[in-house]
Amino acid sequence: MLLINRPLVQFGLALLTVLALPLFLRSGILASEVLIYALIAAACNLLLGYTGLLSFGQGIFFGLGSYVAGIFLTRYGVPVWMVLIMATLLGAAVATLVGWLSIRRQGVYFVMLTLAFSQLFYFLAYTFSDLTGGDNGLMDVPRPDLGAGPMNNAWSFYIFVAVSFLVLFALMLQATQSTFGRTLIAVRDNEERAAAIGFPVKAFKTAAFAISGAVTAYGGALKAMLIGVAPLANIEHHTSEMILIMTIIGGSTSLFASVIGAAAYMILADVLSQIWPRWLLLLGLALVCVALFLQKGLWGLIEKLWVMFFQKDQSLEKKEAEH
Amino acid sequence: MTYLFQVLNGIGLGMLYFLLAVGLSIIFGLLQFVNFAHGAFYLLGAYLTYDLVERGMSFWLAMPIAALIVAVVAGVTEALLLRRIYKLPHTFHILVTVGIALFIQELVIILWGPLGGSVAAPDGLNGVVIWGDFIYPKYRLFTIAFTAVLALVLYWALERTRLGAIVRAGSESTENMALLGYDTLRINTVVFAAGAGLAGLAGGLVSPIRGVEPFMGVEALSIAFVVVVIGGMGSYVGALVAGILVGVVQSLMATIWPEGARLMIYIGMASIIVMMPRGLFGRA
Amino acid sequence: MIGRRKLLLSTAGAGLFLASPGLLRHASAAGDVLKVGIPVPISGGNAANGKYASMGAIIAAEEATAKYGREVKTFDLDTEGKPATAVRKVQDAIQQEGIQLFAGGILSSESLAMGKEADKGGANFITTAGADEITGTECNAATFRWSVPTFGAINQSIRPIIDALPNAKRWYTITPQYVFGEGLLQATKDVLEEKGLELVGNSYHSLTEKEFSGYLTNAIATKPDVLLILNFGAQCADTLRQAVSFGLKERMTIVVAWASGLEQFEALGADLCEGIYFGAQYWHTIDSPANAELVKLTRAKYNENPNYSLAGSYICTKLMIDAAMKAGSTDQKAVQAALKGMTYAGLTGEEHVRPEDNQVIKNYYLLKARAKSAMANKDDFAEVISSGQSFLEVAKTGCKLS
């Protein structure tokens, strides 16, 4: 394994990102958002990269998480830590259901099924406006108060987000390194063989969904607290599409790849949208270029550069060994 | 009585949905390619028709010319871009076509502005026909007839021509095609262009009904997906039946429970995939 | 080790590059410049409104610069039409740029969220968005609204029609299912009940709907005298196009309660609109000194007539600037004190900021679209047939500002 893909190094890079963002971004909100999306893209990567499942349903869990935060923080005054746990559990539960139904189909049909579910949940949220606020969304979602008053300054909330990010990122790294993670990769690479050996393939895929959904819902709750609203847009299929794009741009060969993908997407979108209102045109071009020239994403590029500059000898040795 | 009217209206709507979806279905059948840019080709067809009519061209000329331009654009895109990525996983098909869709949508806004506009129905098709209590626009009646004729022509092309036979053979196995010695690359381009051209034609045909606006492609794409999934990917008959089914359900729901119309359609789509993964008419 | 440091350095370089537009903008915004944030959708589905809103705000800023001899600058903040993005941009503008005056918000959802944010962040916000809650149940001290809410829009658009058409007994409504639509529908029901008229049917539809033939078929079956369309923008255009193609114009009176303005007529075309009634917040032919001035300025700068998006943004920006000048600062409380109760020469004649709920009291208009042959110029799509003011009493709005 490349040095930069080792779990400890990956965690180090995540830590570095957390420390570096405040140096380069003036907006604490943008920085917090980058970390939230980094977390969610990593959760999406758990499905895409490690399990080989292209899910168009990540927005469902994201929206659910923000609704849980909106409903229980504003209407019932449930403490923040409990709300976060509730969001996580509900995210896991719904993801289990969606995952369990979706993995019965493969390839394009799987993608279409997750797409149908994402539309389904959007219209559910839209129709049951008593619960979700419909198009207005839920407002006045408070930020957590850990004894020192509510975190009105975006940077103090950033610390809260950063700690969450590091803990969950470490847990996901742990999951990918465990037997569970290795089995997922085995399933991804050759499902039939994994099934033949006797792995309960479906259970593993569903579990991957549950973890992904739990983390995504946690991120949704964080986002609602950050912005102060839980809007309908969070559960739209556009959100799912954006999460997928971030993940694919980052690459799927390591978890930190998704952090790079999310950061690149968020920061470039912020800069470009200030320069040119039609910036989505450039995004469209960028997506095409990624598919043509950067199939392993930005992380793949970094890997390549790394090998070129620092592990030349190793790769040479490897090639010679292959001969 | 209202229900009967709604069914009639739904059939009219369904024929449009068929035209919208059939190209997507054929492309998927032959190329195993999920085309998220299908809605953008529909959008482009509508705007080109609008533009040509604004320049004083007759609608009858503008609509086919617009569809032809869309087909050429799509064919060139296929030849230069898409054929490089067929072998990659679906992830990249989706990435590229989402990229193309965004590109076309923003280009439309740059070229024609964000506001949209109306296309007048051609002379002679303004006004309505009245049967008792049932009122129906002449132009919508025309679209039903037009789409029905087109459906027959398409059916004939698929069943009776060499290209059709190849497409059908290819849907079953691309290797078949290669074994038979066909130039698969060229056939792929032609089929992709034709599928996109049909979407462009649908856009032009719909423009007098709905006008044009830059985000019309997004909604069209989701309808096309629903129709193709329910009918069975790659199935011509499936697209026809599912198109009409979706149209009728949508129209009936307008009377029964309008708030739940979309909800019903997506529940239907999800249950079809879970229970009949190949759709109603897909090949097993 | 060397490797990691190199990596760090290159990341740092990229970061600096990315952050620089923000830094530059910050530097140029320093000094004694009065800054107004214009949070509107510049990209995304409502980009057209955002573009005009930005243009209108610039006119207000230039006019104020000349009038007060102090530089006034507007800062476009692209909300993308999404509440979350809108809130982030407003929070950032407050914390990074020190902007305390905001005029914008096209969609109800983004405006509600931004109003809350302005209140929390020590700023003030004025909008033209439609949802009643903005100056109703969700009102706050920092959120002001120029446009007439649903109650006034309905009363001013359908009462004149009821008076003019005594035979219009049966009404049918098409309503988008969210609070804005519900507000319009409720107001309609109240007026119809008071007048002893019948609502023979209503069709709800979702915000993503583009196909209205099913609803129109429903409407036709109930044989109404009036079709009242309660949706907005692109959906309203779709409904109208399809209603006209179903020949409804010949069979009943068609009324749009909340037209989006001149740009809607341009997109639909005069032939299609002819004979249809439109309720409107603003029309460029309104006879008032302030409007005459705005029309003059807009024609001079952009060579076109102002539409609702442009005019609404202009007057909102102007109100914020005038209040800040009057208060002598952009401090939240001082600007609020200056705005509350302010009476001024507005676009629709004399306008007044009601202090109890921060709602501007102004005229609402009923337009009737002309035949193409009767148009005096390319923008002369409609004549104003009535105008007036209807507002709920403060006690009934649900707003509790104290």
TrEMBL record, chain A:
Keywords: Cell membrane, Membrane, Transmembrane, Transmembrane helix. GO terms for molecular function: branched-chain amino acid transmembrane transporter activity. It comes from the Bacteria. The chain crosses the membrane at residues 30-48, 53-74, 80-101, 108-129, 155-173, 207-230, 242-268, 280-302. GO terms for cellular component: plasma membrane. It is a multi-pass membrane protein. InterPro entries: ABC_transp_permease, LivM-like. Its main location: membrane. It is found in: Cell membrane. The keyword Aminoacyl-tRNA synthetase does not apply. Pfam families: BPD_transp_2 (PF02653). This is Branched-chain amino acid ABC transporter permease. It comes from Falsigemmobacter faecalis.
UniProtKB/TrEMBL annotation, chain C:
Transmembrane segments: none annotated. SUPFAM superfamilies: Periplasmic binding protein-like I (SSF53822). It comes from the Bacteria. CDD domains: PBP1_SBP-like. Pfam families: Peripla_BP_6. Residues 34-372 form the Leucine-binding protein domain. Keywords: Amino-acid transport, Signal, Transport. InterPro entries: BCAA_transport, Leu-bd, Peripla_BP_I, TAT_signal. This is Branched-chain amino acid ABC transporter substrate-binding protein. It comes from Falsigemmobacter faecalis.
